[in-house]
Amino acid sequence: MTTVESPAARGNAPVLRVLYFMRFTFAGVWAALLFVTRSPLTLLAVGLLVLYPLFDVGAAVVDAYASRGAGVVRGLLCVNIVISLCGAMGLAIAAHSGMPAVLRAWGAWAIVSGLVQLIVGVVRRRMGGQWPMMLAGGLSMLAGWSFILQASAPDPDLGNVAAYMVLGGVFFLISCLRLGPRSTPCACSACSS
Could you tell me the pTM of the whole model? Predict the structure, then answer.
């Protein structure tokens, strides 16, 4: 697998910093709201569960646009868009069957999207700041399996999903802070290196 080190790939580091910081912020707010509404499966909780993959779609679209010169990464981001759209639809459908079905659908989405995140991180590793993305992708795959197993528990709820997203948000923040130290600084003061 080739790594991305073209001028176009390095040029999107400022965009990625802003995007990673936005993902960190969104994940924190989203997780707090989900934790409050984690059980029983309310309309608000279902809405939040469907919203996250849709937010992931938006982030992948922005990333793909910024990655115009990186064909492999752009292709993987397009795959991620399809995966997250399917994840949102799957979660909306699973909500009609109850918490176990929702946890299984969330787990399946976490596994597949985590794999794509891991591969994108590997391809982009020379940009810098990608080890947290690789680690997050690998952990997402493991967490996905744990959600599927948790679906069989006597009284499953969404508390672990909220905790998983907090951790994911922290990985985005670390990547924001470490991304491309030789690149132009991000517009947000939190990501300045």
Answer: 0.85
